[in-house]
Amino acid sequence: MMMDSLVLRNRSCRSFDEGTPITKEILTDLVDLARRTASGMNKQPLRYRILSDSSEIAAMLQNCRFGSALPGVKLPPENGKPTGFILIFTDKEAASPESLALKDVGIAAQTILLAATELGFGGCMLGSFEPTRLNADFGISSRYVPQLAIALGKPAERALLTDAHDGSLRYYRDAAGNHCVPKRALDEVLI
Ligand SMILES: Cc1cc2nc3c(=O)[nH]c(=O)nc-3n(C[C@H](O)[C@H](O)[C@H](O)COP(=O)(O)O)c2cc1C
């Protein structure tokens, strides 16, 4: 049943192979795809910033938090950092109600990650960062509200989906170091 689906292969990844960087051209192509996805009332309130210089990536890594549910694990690891970021903003001056604009953010982010996975890359959506600092670090006007960051690169970790038991949805690392992500069962999510 669709076991090799792109959707299933696209897992949040927090360790990367720095030897195979995602290029600025590919990051730009990913934004070029995202800008053409569905948008509530077709208002297209999203704006993007690509980070691909090592100094910009270092600044972003100082601001965001990876894998907070795994406090004993340093993520990303020392030599396994993402090699690019795409930051997604909403434009305060776009005439899109916030409830619609935030849905657009999710659609754009998932599209970027699916397309990256198709190309052999991967990444992680990051909502945990300080927004004022982000705008200041990258010289972005307060007109643009950062909603989600996507860390990208060549994945260097293995993620396994497991069945959620006992109500625990917390992701964990198994003895072999695999990243394990519990998902609710089909009969639980069908109402
Ligand atoms: C809106 C959103 C915000 C997220 N923020 C973070 C984050 O700040 N840091 C992080 O490490 N992962 C973040 N994640 C990734 C989730 O932890 C991840 O999706 C979840 O553990 C399930 O794993 P999966 O994506 O492989 O299914 C975020 C995911 C979403 C959808």
Overview of the structural elements:
With 191 residues, the protein is α+β, with helices and mostly antiparallel strands. It folds into two domains: 6-157, NADH Oxidase; 161-191, no CATH class. It contains six helices and eight strands. Strand 7 (172-173) and strand 8 form a beta hairpin. Helix 2 (24-34) packs across helix 4 (98-118). The radius of gyration is 17 Å and the shape is globular. The protein binds flavin mononucleotide. Flavin mononucleotide is lined by residues 11-12, 14, 65-67, 124-128, 159, 171, 181.
Short description:
The chain is an alpha+beta fold and 191 residues long.
Which characteristics define this entry?
alpha+beta, NADH Oxidase, 5-stranded antiparallel beta sheet, 3-stranded mixed beta sheet, 8 strands, binds flavin mononucleotide
